[in-house]
Amino acid sequence: MNKPKTVLRTCNLCEAGCGLEVDVDGGQVLAVRPDENDPISRGYVCPKGLAMGELHDDPDRLRRPVRRGDDGRFHEISWDEAFSTVASRIDATRTRFGADSVAVYFGNPLVHNLGGVLMIGALVNAIGTKNRMSASSQDTAPRFAASYYLYGNTWAVPVPDVDHTDYFLCIGANPVVSQGSFMAGPDVKARIRRIRERGGKVVVVDPRRTETSKIADEHVFIRPGNDAALLLAMCNVIVKQGLADRASIERMSSGWGEIEKRLGSFTPKSVEGVTGVPAETIERMAIEFAKAKTSVAYTRIGTCNSLYGTLGSYAGDLLNVIVGRLGARGGSVFAEPALDIGSVASALGINGHGRWHSRVRKLPETGCDLPASVLAEEMETPGAGQVRALVTVAGNPVLSTPNGRRLESAMEKLDFYVAIDMYVNETTRHADVILPPCWALAEAHMEPATPNTSLHNSVRVSPPAVDKQPGELADWEIMLRLAEMLGGGPTGNRAMDAVLRVAGRLGWKWDPISTADLLIRIGPRGDKLLPWSKGLNMKRILAKPYGIDLGALTPGAERRFAHRDKRAHLAELPMIEEIDRLAVALKATRADGELLLVGRRELRSNNSWMHNVPSLVSGRTRCVLYIHPDDARRAGLRDSAPAKLTSRICTREVPVRVTDEMMPGVVSLPHGYGHEGIDEYLSVAGAHAGVSANDWTDDQLVERIVGQSVLNGVPVRIAPA
Ligand SMILES: Nc1nc2c(c(=O)[nH]1)N[C@H]1C(S)=C(S)[C@@H](COP(=O)(O)OP(=O)(O)OC[C@H]3O[C@@H](n4cnc5c(=O)[nH]c(N)nc54)[C@H](O)[C@@H]3O)O[C@H]1N2
Ligand SMILES: Nc1nc2c(c(=O)[nH]1)N[C@H]1C(S)=C(S)[C@@H](COP(=O)(O)OP(=O)(O)OC[C@H]3O[C@@H](n4cnc5c(=O)[nH]c(N)nc54)[C@H](O)[C@@H]3O)O[C@H]1N2
Ligand code: SF4
Ligand SMILES: [Mo]
Predict the structure, then answer these.
(1) Whose CA is nearest to atom 8 of ligand 3?
(2) Tens digits of per-residue pLDDT, 617-662?
(3) Which of 10, 232, 272, 618 has a CA that sits 20 to 30 A from residue 30's CA?
(4) Structural domains of the chain sorted by starting position, each given as residue range(s) with its CATH number in brackets
(5) Which among 14, 559, 120, 566 has a CA at the least distance from the CA of 367?
(6) 0.85 surpassed by pTM
């Protein structure tokens, strides 16, 4: 007999990692509450976290594998049938057409799933494909490439030391709604407020007057795609004013001369036109930034997902470097996690850029992932290496990747498609087989990746909350079983997997927590497997229900630099070339009447997948296009009336909200909606369909370094419907 109990968990839905109290009875969730006693989140949560129980109970969530029958409908099948079908179909495609004919796409929720993350390499290597894609190319590929060129380390992503800074320059991010990305920690809103309370300054640069700008001292409108120009101009001002920290540049970096001589092209006046930021504002911001006691520039999705995404991410770091803020307290610092997943990834070769390219358009890999925007053409274009089978794990690329509808039609040509997902969504509805994992509450939880970019170092492992029901498998169990059936094993390394197979015959079984234990123990904070050491191991972590506080972020950056000379390389060739291209582009003129479409996030929404939770979709309609009154007037649009929005690839109707929150010339639409014709599988989401922003975004309009599609700054036109 089960007895009701309360289990303490961290929420796995976003990077904030808030503490939850979950009342459970066996397989049932009775209640979910904020955990007031959590020493880190102190009772802070958002509505999504409180909906964990609703997700668990959602009748539309798949509990058993399903296979599409001749009638086109999904029918439940046994796990044995599911695994043997999937393994034999993938193997058949691979044998006939080569390993690259099987593409794999990993979605965002996997990032918060320890077992899933550890199984990525296992599954990809078992298949043997180079056609590996992920949500990264709609999110972080430019950031990773910038880190790769600057620090020689894809995973060296600096974090703004918000808790200690006196000047927070927040560019292309809306942490008050997104809860912070690459600045992970609960209640970032309060943390940002505290900067001002201690006399500091917060400046937000965004084409929309966002929720974050409402708690800032200053908001600056910028025309999308131009963060790099703005940041380089700020660098120029700092140098001209003699405010650059030359000693620090000298000590930490190489290549400054190459950059300094190029900064001349980026003056406040020369970038004023493209950025829309007045020259005197740029000048003042630069001087304030340099003169503040401490300061940090932070860039995120708005910068990353735009035409100069890599250069914009680079230029944010450059600004920090030249005033001596990289590695300084209150500046831009690196977290020191217990499980250093970045170093593990680097050791496995997941560190680099452009080592191979896509077959059709020759777009480069970044950290082993090709841009997802190549997936449709790789399916459509005949020839050796054409993609004929697809595996998706925790993703919804039809709604989340550019020109999603092209991908959706291309998917019809596939010989076989298997999805590992808990839902039939707009993408997985096209699968032949769907393998559903148990919901996260049935597994132990430990964030594998976010501690790499946390605002404060800590480590915590939450126990499973609900009992796994008979016939339920976790993501890692599904991925591992498939990998093994395709000839691989848990490490993705042939020799190591062969050893583990022998161990397996002796009764040893791979599992994520033991693997994390090993990685922690041999990691920088670990006990190095020495019984007398005071270092970390899983036993010590599990003994503390709230985990272990590993202290504030510490100064120093060099420990993360992987270039042999232990310096930040400011002038690697791709960056130099991009700076030169941007210098030329500053002179281009803008098409008349052209609007630029950008994205937006909503507090009650999580990319494409939480709209099936009733408590999260109640109230006002959220999927509406924001437009400035002047643009609305010019186009003859009225508030709340539908409009016809046109990009290169799509014309469709959207509901409009007229608001001076928007910069003139820019319109904003959240992504992740567009749940049309899916009522059968997602009864709640289907009734709140909205439209998908990625019906308009363009798979062919890409950033030049990583080939990631432009999702912010898509040229559009608008007219009354
Ligand atoms: N236009 C535009 N497009 C964007 C963005 C933008 O700003 N603008 N942002 C992009 C960003 S940052 C991201 S990260 C991507 C996200 O894009 P994706 O990762 O492709 O999509 P998600 O909406 O996160 O889909 C998550 C899927 O995972 C499933 N899922 C949830 N939890 C689990 C789990 O534990 N295991 C398994 N197996 N499945 C699970 C859900 O049911 C859902 O189907 O979208 C991107 N797309
Ligand atoms: N509630 C909620 N939280 C989430 C998510 C969610 O879907 N919902 N998704 C999670 C994920 S996967 C991620 S990656 C993070 C992302 O977290 P953030 O990076 O904070 O993402 P956004 O909230 O989309 O904020 C991007 C901002 O950039 C602005 N912008 C657009 N183009 C430009 C430009 O060219 N320059 C500048 N300066 N600004 C621009 C937009 O107007 C927008 O305000 O959020 C995570 N948290
Ligand atoms: S902010 Fe993120 S981690 Fe916290 S409760 Fe909401 S979804 Fe969960
Ligand atoms: Mo993301």
Answers:
(1) 49
(2) 988 889 999 999 999 999 999 999 999 999 999 999 999 999 999 9
(3) 618
(4) 1-57 (3.30.200.210), 61-141+337-555 (3.40.50.740), 161-328+569-582 (3.40.228.10), 590-720 (2.40.40.20)
(5) 120
(6) yes
